[in-house]
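P.,

For your records, the input lines for the assembly:
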Amino acid sequence: LSLSLSNLICSKSARELIHKVDMETEKQNAIVEVELRRGPWTVEEDLILTNYISKHGEGRWNTLAKCAGLKRTGKSCRLRWLNYLRPDVRRGNITAEEQLLILELHSRWGNRWSKIAQHLPGRTDNEIKNFWRTRMQKHANQQCMPPLLERIRTVVDSSRAVMGVHTASASSSGRNGFSSSSATSNYDDHLDLKDMASTLEEEGWPEFPAHGCEGSMLGFWEFSAMGPNMYA
DNA sequence: AACGAGGTCAACCGCGCGTCG
DNA sequence: GCGACGCGCGGTTGACCTCGT
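Structure tokens returned:
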């Protein structure tokens, strides 16, 4: 079989055929590249996508892109919809409570942005990821973070205890000491972040006088860290 | 006013996983 | 079992914006 195959490939007509197929493939690829749009979305494209999804629903993104007449990949359409056009997307600054929650969840899960985003209604994983990279990672301060995270864990655990959620012995602990039982998951869905934030603020954590950090609550969070592994 | 540095964020890319024929 | 396809995720890029000099 291999002998006859090599004979075929070596023959003149076979080489011509292969060349012809290659040329055709290149031509097709070139057409696709010319037709597919990239980069920022226009208002018209946004309208087309929004209208199409409102009529037909989302999913099957590649088919959707073709049927809607958008010269975009399915991936691009999905991203645009999920991160920007979806009606329940929240825009604007990340609040102090949200920052606190991101900090706490990141200490538990690391860079699991989509998982973290599930706990911040209206926020996308992309937004949280960008927030972390630009506002937190940049100002990483290894001196400040470990004691703060330790305090957050204490506050969370004491709140859990008040609610009758057992964490220490009954459930398995994550790499940062947070439990992962179903009971705590239920609790986590109802974390009172305002209470937690005010508790920490009352304790003077935002100023961090003893650790050399300065600034307001918002400013403080900018001293946050790279991730759980940094101070593990 | 002009310019460069740094920050922000929308969009892209590559990879892995699940599903289906 | 296998390949094609769709989808979701995390990492990265690059255009645009802001601010300081």
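Two observations worth noting. The longest helix of chain A spans residues 12-35. Chain A has twelve helices and no strands.

Regards
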